[in-house]
Automatic annotation (TrEMBL):
This is Flavin reductase. Belongs to the non-flavoprotein flavin reductase family. SMART domains: Flavin_Reduct. The lineage of its organism: Bacteria, Bacillati, Actinomycetota, Actinomycetes, Propionibacteriales. Residues 19-162 form the Flavin reductase like domain. Keywords: Oxidoreductase. It comes from the Bacteria. Residues 183-196 have a biased composition (Basic and acidic residues). Pfam families: Flavin_Reduct. Residues 172-196 are annotated as: Disordered. Gene3D superfamilies: Electron Transport, Fmn-binding Protein, Chain A. GO terms for molecular function: FMN binding; riboflavin reductase (NADPH) activity.
Length: 196
């Protein structure tokens, strides 16, 4: 959507701060491409579709890694665990050092999956959509797994955090998730699953 002529241009710093207010997890997107370990850290990962199974992440159009990674037949997505903060920084750092000393496995189709990830996905590129200074990469999901990790790493306001599970008091909520009445604990659970 175009902004009207009277709308002042959004300052990139202000926009970054607003984007940073939204918490996310972080994933490793990685593959062995022609025998070369290739990957990045990405906080833009999100689930997209159940049928067909699709997930997405966004990659900068200036990425020097994506032109290599997109050549992989299969890509591994590993949801980073809360002790993976240094791993995350390493995967976002100098290309030749990204996998140095990391515990990971390479599947027979070339996906690279980190040990102790909270969840893993075996994917292939389904579609790339140009979106401003990023590409939205849609990935077809072929297989999912538990990576052995328990709690996810959280990325918020440019920093790492842990998820502190402290479920909201139902008495202070409006009692509805997706329009469904949340009465008992069980029905609340069902509604959450439907909402996922
Ligand atoms: C927490 C975190 C999240 C990141 N998320 C993304 C992302 O979603 N998309 C992206 O293009 N780069 C993201 N990056 C940067 C990449 O990991 C990587 O540093 C960048 O792609 C530059 O390397 P390249 O030129 O080899 O691609 C993130 C970095 C960090 C530390």
């Amino acid at each position: 959507m175009k902004s009207s002529p009277s709308t002042p241009a959004l300052d990139p710093r202000t926009l970054r701060d607003a984007f940073g207010a939204f918490p996310s997890g972080v994933v490793a997107v990685a593959a062995s491409v022609k025998g070369q370990l290739t990957g990045i850290a990405a906080s833009s990962f999100t689930s997209v579709s159940i049928d067909p199974p699709l997930v997405s992440f966004s990659i900068s159009t200036t990425s020097s890694t994506w032109p290599l990674l997109r050549e992989a037949d299969h890509l591994g997505i590993s949801v980073l665990a809360d002790h993976h903060d240094a791993v995350c920084r390493q995967l976002a750092g100098p290309r030749e050092e990204r996998f140095a000393g990391l515990p990971f496995r390479v599947t027979e189709n070339g996906s690279v999956l980190l040990d102790e990830a909270v969840a893993t996905y075996d994917c292939s590129v389904h579609q790339e959509v140009v979106a401003g200074d990023h590409l939205i990469v849609l990935l077809a999901v072929h297989e999912v797994g538990g990576g052995g990790g328990e709690h996810p790493l959280v990325f918020h306001r440019s920093g790492f955090a842990k998820l502190h599970r402290d479920d909201l008091d139902p008495a202070r909520l409006d009692g509805r998730i997706n329009g469904a009445e949340v009465g008992s604990r069980e029905s609340s659970h069902e509604s959450k699953e439907d909402a996922a």
